[in-house]
DNA sequence: ACCCAGGCATTGG
DNA sequence: CCAATGCATGGG
């Protein structure tokens, strides 16, 4: 087992615990990710080579610095370089939040939220495929149910590695999910329809990887047009893809019940708002609607809204 | 026993 | 083009 250490210098302000904890808020784990005793861990699947990244903070909010310890068989400096870049991406460390914070000052509620969660960056998924499958799994079910299903899928079909007596999982590969029968996915507590969606997306990702992973080079609108042609992917899923997989700052997941609720709670005295009203209202945060959405969800999750 | 929860595709008007 | 409906699971 080879080990290499690297550092990452995120764009300030960067709150490591808040950002790494965004995914792992439930018992410090999210199937593929963990945050225990200030160390964020994730098993990276790099062209079939499994590398465990262990990340800890040695800096501060305004002068952030992260230590990334990598371990795996045949770990070379070149591989470590790619792995470090992946970790930087996973933690959204390049995001510049200041312009959004300035915009948030024009609104007392958002100003309070951004102050409370100062330095929270938006975590990203490793691949577009991962974000797509996770979004399908999360459609129209309670987050708790979604978590159970997600964990089951990852721990059943994800590549794994035992290190120091602990099992780590990477997200299942397209070829693995594409090779399954729909009944196998139904065994993962997916509905017939979702099992078909996931299978179809895995098949597409395997058959035409560029269709999925090539979305990085397209404009937001083109991404939405292209990805919603897949069965199981509507606007809500496309917007989450822009946020979670592509790191776009101005996405807005209209149709999201939680978004409607949190906007109505924070700005309309709990008076229910429909999608058109939410869209109209959220214009004030463009071109940073991704950040506004994520911060509102975080506020809601922690009982602040 | 019900009802609902961070949607989508299909169908019927 | 828009509204209604089935889908599956687990928690309240």
User: Could you list the spans in which at least 5 consecutive residues all have pLDDT below 50?
Assistant: none
Strand order of the largest sheet: 1-5-4-3-2
Number of helices: 15
CATH class of the largest domain: Mainly Alpha
Shape verdict: globular
Number of extended strands: 7
Key descriptive features of the protein:
15 helices; 305 residues; DNA-binding; Endonuclease III, domain 1; single chain; TATA-Binding Protein; alpha+beta; 48% helix; five-stranded antiparallel beta sheet
Q: Could you characterize the architecture of this molecule?
A:
- This protein is of the alpha+beta class.
- It has three domains: 2-94, TATA-Binding Protein; 128-160 and 172-244, Endonuclease III, domain 1 (Orthogonal Bundle), CATH 1.10.340; 257-301, no CATH class.
- It is built from 15 helices and seven strands.
- The protein has helices spanning 16-24, 77-90, 98-104, 108-116, 128-138, 143-157, 174-179, 182-186, 192-207, 209-213, 220-227, 235-244, 257-267, 275-282, 289-301, and strands at residues 2-8, 33-36, 39-46, 49-57, 66-72, 160-163, 166-169.
- The strands form two sheets. The chain has a five-stranded antiparallel sheet with strand order 1-5-4-3-2, with helices on one face. A two-stranded antiparallel ribbon has the order 6-7.
- The longest helix has 16 residues, at 192-207.
- The model has no long low-confidence stretch (mean pLDDT 94).
């Amino acid at each position: 087992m080879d080990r290499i250490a690297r550092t990452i210098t995120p764009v300030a302000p960067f709150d490591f615990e808040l950002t790494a904890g965004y995914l792992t808020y439930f018992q410090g784990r999210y199937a593929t990710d963990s945050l225990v005793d200030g160390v964020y861990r994730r098993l990276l699947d790099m062209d079939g080579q499994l590398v465990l990244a262990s990340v800890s903070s040695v800096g501060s909010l305004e002068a952030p610095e992260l230590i990334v310890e990598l371990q795996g068989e045949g770990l070379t400096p070149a591989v470590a370089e790619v792995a470090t870049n992946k970790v930087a991406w996973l933690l959204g460390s390049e995001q510049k939040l200041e312009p959004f914070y300035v915009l948030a000052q024009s609104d007392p509620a958002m100003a309070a939220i951004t102050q409370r969660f100062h330095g929270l960056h938006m975590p990203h998924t490793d691949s577009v495929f991962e974000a797509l499958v996770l979004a399908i799994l999360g459609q129209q079910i309670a987050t708790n149910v979604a978590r159970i299903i997600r964990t089951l899928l990852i721990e059943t079909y994800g590549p794994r590695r035992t290190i120091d007596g602990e099992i780590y999982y990477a997200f299942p590969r397209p070829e693995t999910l594409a090779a399954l029968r729909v009944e196998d996915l139904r065994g993962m507590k997916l509905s017939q329809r979702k099992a078909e969606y996931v299978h179809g997306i895995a098949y597409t990702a395997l058959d035409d990887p560029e269709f999925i992973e090539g979305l990085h080079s397209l404009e937001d609108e083109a991404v939405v047009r292209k990805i919603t042609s897949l069965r199981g992917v509507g606007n809500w899923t496309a917007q989450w893809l822009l946020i979670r997989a592509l790191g776009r700052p101005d996405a807005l997941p209209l149709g999201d019940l939680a978004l409607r609720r949190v906007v109505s709670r924070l700005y309309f005295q709990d008076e229910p708002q429909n999608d058109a009203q939410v869209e109209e209202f959220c214009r004030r945060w463009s071109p940073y609607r991704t950040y506004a959405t994520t911060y509102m969800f975080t506020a809601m999750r922690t009982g602040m809204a």
